[in-house]
Amino acid sequence: MAQVGTTDSSDLPTTPGAFLQKGTGAFVGKVNAAGTALSYLTVIGAGNYDYYISVPATRASALAVDDAGNAYLTGATADRKFPATAGAYQTTYAPSVDPSTTPFGLPPTDAFVAKIDGTGQ
């Protein structure tokens, strides 16, 4: 069973071979069929932005898993270094909103969709 979430902890216990092993923000993990161990746990987008306290720049909000075990997650990011694959619709952070118009002065976000295969890659 796969799960998605957001952490503000920089020491989330990721698994060997994780896409990103450290950082705050969106993460995705999968528990083995017996429910006794992690198959994988990885951070997706490890940047922060500051607003009184350190706030993760990438937040995950939804997850779907296909029959092959691939996890598809979506969320929002304000991380200028968010990873994108070649050929993606948009490969760099490019918000279309003026930051001065966002609530509390937080930076505007871009949506993202990510695919993680059954091994966490």
How would you portray this structure in words?
Helices cover 0% and strands 41% of the residues. The protein has one domain (2-116). The strands form three sheets. A three-stranded antiparallel β-sheet has the order 1-2-3, with no helix packed on it. It starts with a strand and ends in a 5-residue tail after the last strand. With 121 residues, it is mostly beta strands. The chain has no helices and eight strands. The chain has strands spanning 2-7, 25-31, 38-44, 48-51, 53-56, 58-65, 71-77, 110-116.
Largest sheet: 3 strands, antiparallel
Computed CA radius of gyration, to the nearest angstrom: 15 Å
Instruction: Indicate the low-confidence ranges by residue numbers.
Output: none
Cα distance, first to last residue?
A: 16 Å
Shape: globular
Overall mean pLDDT: 81
List keywords for this structure.
single chain; about 120 residues; mainly beta; about 0% helix
